[in-house]
Amino acid sequence: MGTSGSTSTSARFVVESSKTDGPREPRIPWPWPVVVLAAAAVAIMAQWLALAGIIIPEWLSSNGQPFSSVLTAASSLWLSGHGVPIDILGIHIGLIPLGLTCVSLVLGEETCRYGTRVLWHRHDGHPPRRHIGEAIALHTTVEVLAAITMTATAGTSHWATATVGGLLVGLCSGVVGACCGARVNPFNRLPRWARGLPRAVGSTVAVCLAGGSAALAVALLVRADNVVQLHEHMGAAGWEGICLILAQLAWLPTMALWGTAWTLGPGFALGTETFVSPLGTHLGIVPALPLLGALPANGPLNLAACAWFGVPVAAGVIGGILVMKSLPEARCESGASLGALSGLVSGLVLTMLGLLSRGSLGDERLSEVGTIMPAMAGCAVGILTVVTMLCGFVIGVIRRLRSKKTPQEDVGGGEVSEVGEEETSRIVSVPDEGATSPESNSSRERTGSKRISRPNAASEEAKAIREVAIGHDIYDSIQNDRDGLGGEDTTDHS
After folding, report:
1. Is the peptide bond before 23 cis (omega within 30 degrees of 0)?
2. Beta partners for 371?
3. Helix 332-356 vs helix 375-412: angle between axes, to the nearest 10 degrees?
4. What angle do CA 406, 408, 411 make, to 5 degrees?
């Protein structure tokens, strides 16, 4: 009785603990569509209020500016993260601050995940795919409506750009958030040979972006004195200095993409007829932004900087290994094809990101700023495709050689022992479990005195048979000696 009681108590404890460890249902009595809509609206409003809070101290220090200018400036900043150009201090800036874009994506993903988690619990962990699609559509609708509203508030004429930007941000954040909240993997429906491509492509792109970010960080560390001097030269102190730092942080991911293009070879431009690359640098007059103090001086080919070309090569090798790891039976031809496909998709993803990092920092000479197209697209697609294809081909060759070597080891890897005629006859004549059939005796006579045995079980069996045969020989010799002695005794008595 005591044992059964303790067992039921422990079982109940295990069940309760497993329930506690799982994700809890959000305590919201509203229907899940209302939760999705409200969460998306709250995230957008929170981001807009944060931007307005940054602008308000500047508005208070100004003279005679109406409060509506704060609303207009906050809406313009929010739209700039969605690709809409903005005018700051009379300068037309068309370069997207991808830092604000990343904030919008993260907030949108979290809110859509929260709303879809409510949907997941309401359906006991098995939400219909139709409801998941509806959640993504609702989230995207809120993002597009917010972009249209912000466009009207900011008084800009870029309605199409704002709508497309809101649609892309809403779709990207909604798809990722809904799939995570509903615990659905959209790549499970891919063919078996293609299920490893998303992981390979993601890893390849991530390595390239990490290499570009590392190149930017090294440049900032090496030329930190120039950055500090430019910041002090601008005379931005107090809240103005904080705003200057925040503005540069908003464009930091954009500059990280420039660093990625730099590691690929073509580099980036900072004005018409300019370029910054490991193969050389040619710049004109540069805007006096502190971050731009990390730019190298004009000069020819830099051999030390060419070491960064190893970043896309390493990214391609990692992508090739991962895509081949997902398909263990792939050989040379299929490995090269999978590797080439992985590199091609990775190059296209980097090309799209490079397009987002292009824009303008003014008119005339600074109207072309960012990655150099189509040179970056060609290098990204070409280098990654060739490297991943070669990596897949090499791995396929190694697998083919191993598959050919294994059967040979199984057949020829055993011990070849020389057995004399007498020992062979002894082994054949053993009347035990190890006795061989007449067919095996005839085959052994045809093959001569060589006997091939397995290195493990077969060799041990042959050794045991040999020992039994030696024991029988010893027994027979003793019996013969005894018979001989007995025969002598009988002869003497006769």
Report:
1. no
2. 268
3. 160
4. 115
Pick the closest to residue 313 from 248, 367, 375, 265 (CA basis): 265
Q: For residue 51, report the phi and psi dihedrals to the nearest 5 degrees.
A: -65, -40
Scanning the structure block, which residue is given the tokens 């020829």?
412
Query: What's the N-to-C CA distance of the chain in angstroms?
Result: 88
DSSP state at residue 367: G
Tokens 């992981």, residue located? 199
CA neighbor of 107 nearest in space, from 143, 152, 72: 143
What are the φ/ψ torsions at residue 269 (nearest 5 degrees)?
-115, 150
Coil vs helix vs strand at 109: helix
Give the CA-trace dihedral at 347, 348, 350, 354, to 10 degrees: 130
**Residues facing residue 281 across a β-bridge:** 276, 299
Which residues make beta-bridge pairs with 91?
88
Cα 323 from Cα 341, distance rounded (Å):
10
What's the order of all strands across the beta sheet hosting 369-371?
280-282, 275-277, 268-270, 369-371
State pTM to two decimals.
0.77
H helices of 62-86, in order, are 68-80
Query: DSSP string of 271-330?
Result: STT-EEETTEEE-------GGGGGSPPSBS--TTGGGGGHHHHHHHHHHHHHHHHT-TT-
Q: Considering only CA atoms, which of 335, 349, 324 is closest in space to residue 202?
A: 349
Q: Provide φ and ψ at 450, rounded to 5°.
A: -90, 135
Q: Are 290 and 244 in contact (CB under 8 A)?
A: yes
63: Cβ–Cβ under 8 A, 6 or more apart, which residues? Answer: none
d(CA 286, CA 461) in angstroms, rounded, equals 84
| CA atoms of 81 and 90, how far apart (whole Å) | 19
Most confident of 165-174, 293-302, 419-428, 440-449: 165-174
Residue 157: exposure state from Cβ atoms within 10 A (0-12, 13-18, ≥19): exposed
* H-helix segments, 223-309: 224-233, 239-250, 252-264
Tens-digit pLDDT profile for residues 242-274? 888 999 999 999 999 999 999 999 999 998 889
